[in-house]
Amino acid sequence: MVISWQQKAVEHTVTKYSHAQQSASVVTRRQNGHEMNTHVVKIANRECSCDKWNQFGVPFSHAQKVCGAYNISAASMVKDYYDLMAYNNTYSKHFEPVQSEDYWDDPIFQLVHDPTIRTSTSWSKSNNTHS
Ligand SMILES: [Zn+2]
Fold first, then answer.
1. 22 CA → ligand 1 middle, Å
2. Cα separation, 60 vs 65, whole angstroms
3. Domain residue limits, the chain
4. Do 78 and 58 touch, CB atoms closer than 8 A?
5. 93 burial class (0-12, 13-18, 19+ CB within 10 angstroms)?
6. Which of 20, 74, 76, 106 is close enough to 64 for a disulfide, judged by CB 3.0 to 4.6 Å?
7. Which residues contact 69 (CB under 8 A, 6 or more apart)?
8. Residues within 5 Å of ion ligand 1 by Cβ?
9. Ligand 1 centroid to 99 CA: how many Å?
10. Contact (CB, 8 A) for 75 and 60
11. Where is 85: in which H helix or E strand?
């Protein structure tokens, strides 16, 4: 995953306002000084008002700034489904890939298979002939 927020020429100003919720508002301002946005981040809830944290599970720029203000590792704030345990659990089940035909059990029923149907060059013609 590429997190490119650091490359953006955006200035973040963090104003803490609730230590209990580890929440803060982040004002972002582009270098031209025109675009200005205010976002509310609640670290304890793993939420940002821009909704990116909720949608992608990764704390992007606003949340990272607030984590920094509270001396919290932003990496520890990534949603649980990205952590190693979740990754391991995903692949902890036993997979049994299908082997080649040599390993297949003999069927307990009679196989009805007419190889001429697929190998015939006049497949559609013969298939439509029911007499
Ligand atoms: Zn945000």
1. 15
2. 9
3. 5-83
4. yes
5. exposed
6. 74
7. 14, 16, 24
8. 39, 48, 50, 62
9. 48
10. no
11. helix 84-90
